[in-house]
Amino acid sequence: MTRLAVLFSVLAVPAVAAADTRPISLDEAVAIARDGNDTRAAQAVAVERARAQVGAAAGVDDWVIDAHVEGLTRSTEPTMGPFFQETDLDTIVARVGVWKPLAWGGRLGVQVSDGVSRTEALLAAGGPPTDLAYTVHNPRAELVWQQPLLRGRGRAVHDAGRRSARAGADAEAAMLTLADTRLVLDVSRAYWELAYATRELAIRQSALALAGEQLAITRARVGAGTGAELEVLAVEQAIAAREAALVAAEQALGERALELRVLMALEDGDPRPLAAADALDAPTPPAPAATDALARTLGFSPELKAIDFRSRAADARTRAADGSTGPQLDLLVRGGPTGNAAVAGDAWSQLARFDGYQAGASLSLVLPVGDRAARGEREMARLEEKQLAHLREASRGRLTAEVQRAVDAVVLSDKRIAAARRAAELAEKNVKLEIDRWKAGAGTNFDVLTRQDQQAAADAALARAHADRHIAVAALAALTGP
Fold first, then answer.
1. Could you tell me the pTM of the whole model?
2. In the predicted model, is pLDDT for residue 12 greater than 60?
3. Residue 313 burial (CB count, 10 A)
4. Engineered SS bond to 384: which of 28, 62, 314, 480, CB 3.0-4.6 Å?
5. In which domain, by residue range, is 346 found?
């Protein structure tokens, strides 16, 4: 069954008895959500993608093997005059090189090449022209060093991609922790809202049952001539109001169960409405001191860590951009033994004995006019660092306020629970006393119904205080970390 079908099936299920629900603990709900929630899964994929980028960036130090083959054939008609004229040339050159990038920029490598050329020439030396034909093997082995002297020089440029990728991967990992923390908070909030909605439904059912009992007693009294028909109408009016409140509570319960199911991405085909198995009045840990909570939050905050890692990546790009502006001046130094003979074996023997050699050096200069691309990259990296510094301070200030708000919420929830519990106990006593007064003729049905409504409101307020306590603790835990 698809996720959409599951949600529609859940929406179609009316409020049912507890036996027809699916009890689940908060730990189970969190575990299922972590496995199936698509938002968290998308961030987990982002972490894997960033790690793949780290592997790709490490390729800057990979050895490189290159090979090159080139052929040439040329034929020309001889002319009168020159002493020596090349008339035909067939040549092929093969080269292979092994290169190692250098940590400070540039690269060092070894190149081995061999060229074979077959030449036909016309030689005129005062007598009849003579046709010459000869073959030459020209092997060569060289050590080659390429080094940027200005632009692109240094470790900052060479390591920029790798440092940026590592910092980016760390930032994505921090964002995964943040996504996980927020998911746990959202599931916890939805779970305790479901628990509260369940308790509220029970309170409304109890209030309706009490009104039904009150109606039966009132009708009996009217039948015995000790009560008025107006009292029956008053109870019936209360029953109608409590039935409406019960329907609203059933709707709220269904919505809370659906919200939790969506967060859990539950698709196991079980359409039964979810029910909170954990007790709403279960004990919760005491709130930490505000100073301790703030220190723990600033030390744990995945958001601040992600900003710090992104700042490192921006710093790497800034350093690389600083080394990638201005003129480009590259040095190339190469040299090694050579061979030159008509037979390949002889030519390679000459190379091995170092009978001949070749060495050379060159400088190449490239001067970009304006250099707007490199300068723009440097300015963008610098501004990114500045932006992240502002974002870090803004996040730190917001987290400080959120911690204080969360600590206050936990502390005040303790006081709310104590006050609400006392109010619920007094409301229960008042109901009993009011019923006794009514039975003795000193009170009215209206007074009894009013006291019952007050008891239902007090019980609901106590349940709300317990739910808010759990939610406040979850919000504080999301800030301070496990």
1. 0.79
2. no
3. 23
4. 314
5. 56-101+106-151+328-366
